[in-house]
Design brief:
The protein is built from six helices and two strands. With 137 residues, it is mainly alpha-helical. Strand 1 and strand 2 form a beta hairpin. The longest helix has 22 residues. The radius of gyration is 16 Å and the shape is globular.
C-alpha cells in the first residue's frame, strides 16, 4: 500500500470531518441539515427530544470524535477499526439522504442531478474502508 496516499486520504477526510463537525455548531448549518435529518427514517426522532441546534450539535460531536479517531489511527493502528466504522456510518448515512429527502433528485435535459455536495461522500466512504483494511494487517 502506498503509505503517503493512505496518510493523505485519511488525514484529508479527518480534516473535512473536523471542519464540518465544528460548522454543525452554527445556526446556519443546523437549519441547513434539518430537512435532511427530519426526513431520514433513522434520525428524524432526534427532533422529538432535541432542538434543531441540539440535533446539529450532536451530529457535530460525532463527526469531531470520528475525525479525531481518524487522525489517531494514523499513529495507532488499533484505533483504525473504530474510526473506520465510524466514518462508514457517517458517510453511508449522509449518502442515504439522497434517497430519503424529498425532491433531492431533479431532471435537467434528461440528466438526473442532485445536491452534488453529498456525492463527495462516496470518496470519503472509501477512507473508512481503508482504515478497516489497515486494522486487519
Amino acid at each position: 500500500m502506498n503509505r503517503g496516499g493512505y496518510y493523505l486520504n485519511v488525514a484529508g477526510t479527518a480534516i473535512i470531518l473536523l471542519w464540518i463537525g465544528i460548522f454543525k455548531f452554527t445556526p446556519t448549518e443546523a437549519k441547513a441539515i434539518q430537512p435532511l435529518v427530519a426526513n431520514h427514517f433513522l434520525m428524524s426522532w432526534l427532533y422529538n427530544i432535541l432542538s434543531i441546534q441540539g440535533v446539529s450539535n450532536l451530529i457535530g460531536i460525532v463527526e469531531i470524535i470520528v475525525g479525531i479517531g481518524m487522525l489517531a489511527a494514523l499513529k495507532w493502528d488499533n484505533v483504525s477499526n473504530y474510526a473506520g466504522y465510524g466514518a462508514i456510518i457517517i458517510f453511508a448515512t449522509t449518502l442515504s439522504f439522497l434517497l430519503t429527502t424529498p425532491n433531492t433528485w431533479r431532471w435537467i435535459d434528461g440528466v438526473p442531478i442532485t445536491d452534488f455536495f453529498i456525492l463527495k461522500d462516496l470518496a470519503l466512504l472509501g477512507s473508512g474502508m481503508l482504515l478497516i483494511k489497515n486494522s486487519q494487517k
